[in-house]
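Session log. Operator J.P. requested a structure for one protein chain; no other inputs attached. Running the standard single-chain path with token output.
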Amino acid sequence: MGKIKQFETLIVEEVEQTSEEAPSEHGHNFFEIIYILNGQGYHYINKTALPYKQGNLFLLSPEDEHYFDIKEKSRFAIIRFTDHYFTQKRHLTTDETLVIHPTDLIRSQVLKENIITFNGPCSGILSNTIANILAYKCKVDLSDSAIIFYQIMTILGMVREELLRMDADLTNEQPSKERLLSYIHQHIYNPEDIQIKSIAGHFHISASYFSAYFKRNFSMSYREYVEKYKLKLIEKRIATGKTSLKQIADEFGFTDESHLSKYFKQKKNIRPTLYRKEHSQ
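Structure written below.
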């Protein structure tokens, strides 16, 4: 799976694609608003298939992976921006405007599992707003335009109101690094509790977002961290000589002493009995 990178703060484009032209599943380092101008098919977001048609709107974050399965030639209005876009436009907003930060709104899990539908006047307002952005994209320094910024904020404001109408949870509270590590260290002896699905569920965030969040904050994958921490604890247990290998195997969820020995030899290139002997001297 590829990852598309964008270094410009803001890009607006109109794209028409057939099934043969559509990119395969991919991720990206930017936020994305996609409006369906016409056509139909399925939009796969983090493995979830959502049927799309004219007038549908999708919001994607850098943590998402997606692709379109186009059944009928489709035309998309695409707005791509980096997290720096809203930072540099802070002077154009008020605290009331940013009750929930735009990037937090886009990360809402409900947007990855449901199609947000706008009916009646709202549908027309959304369509006109998209048309305004496309008409104005000829401006050279698009990212500097306050007009474009307010149009984008209009779209996000409409999405927020629709999610509130659906009683969706918009808090998107992210666990602090301290809380996260505390939970991992506390449950390291219970493999089921530290599976990505379990820990993401504990902190009420999606599994795909959790993995990206962890890597962004700790500069390594979640699995890599757990593996290193677990191995470090096992090393200490073996080195002290106060705990039998069978007890260590039981403590860390290995099937038996042989399983532990095989794991340790694979990781440290030394048998645990020899490692204990070397470190007890």
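Operator note: The mean pLDDT is 86.
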